[in-house]
Specification:
It is a single chain. By secondary structure, the protein is of the alpha/beta class. Helix content is 55%, strand content 10%. It has a 7-stranded mixed beta sheet with strand order 2-1-5-4-3-6-7, covered by helices on one side. The chain folds into 2 domains: 173 residues, Glutaredoxin; 104 residues, Alpha Horseshoe (Serine Threonine Protein Phosphatase 5, Tetratricopeptide repeat). It is elongated, with a radius of gyration of 24 Å. It has 14 helices and 7 strands.
Length: 334
Amino acid sequence: MIIAIILSIILLLSPSAFSENLQPLDKAPDFTLMTVKGDAVSLQDFKNNALIFIYWKPDHERSILALKDADKLSKAYAAKGVRFIAITAELAEKEKINALLNQNGLDFQVLLDPQRKVYSSYEIRVYPTTVLIDKDNKFFGTLPGHALTYYSSLEGYIKLMLGEIDKESLEKMLTPENNHGNEAEHEAERNYNLALNFASTGMLHESLEAVKKSIEAKPDIAKSHTLLGFLLLKNNEPDPAIEHFNKALELEPDSKDAKTGQGAAYALKNEPDKAIEILSAVITANPYPQMSYYYLGMAHELKGEKDPAIEMYKKSLHNLLEKGILPSSFSKCK
């Protein structure tokens, strides 16, 4: 592992390692490509912005992982004038691209390079390859592949390009002892997103295994415990679910999802009074109260209170139809 990290640093600090002709600070090769939607986009459209593009291949796992990391960084650095796009040569996959991005919760402008002009001019060798171009339209470097250190390496590279750090600071930032925390967080986030994808397709066992790996990588992320709690409820295991909802609330005391899950678990345990107490308190402050109303209905039904139960079920259905979303705020269908 340490050797792999050191090699990543060497590659990062020597961005021309995969380039035969294109060197850092050369004028970036111009391009004009069509988007999936049929619009023309050129390098000049990003004038006065730093540009990062990920040359990727659909249905290639490491390409998707790179896009997920880049998507998070694009939001973090948008205000600093850093733009992100994705480029692919796979024209035959055009119809699948939007579905693939939506499935993974990604928001990228995708350009098509069927003649592989960008592939050639930027000397792409592996999938994925991340290319950085500075605000003066000068080639800054490439990051080939998707190593475990990709997220922290790319962020460090961006900071270096923006002049926020120097090479010495970057090297310190990416040393194994400093990078371990970022790596763990990245692994936790990757498995959390994987668990969500499995859950959305009804693959409960796979989803459970993925979210458990997320917690193993970094135990102090509230949303992972919350997701595991709901999956355990789905598996009719309310007691371990409560343990994870409680842990989530230790980490994030105001989590509406964890409180909703807690109340739902007590309803499943046939403890309606406790469920009603928890769920009634969380509904007023929860922008996604559909599930809370549903389990309140269940709790009233357990007590034989037919009219309040029907009222809660109606409210649950009304909110679900009105907002067109799933109950929990951790859902991608917002």
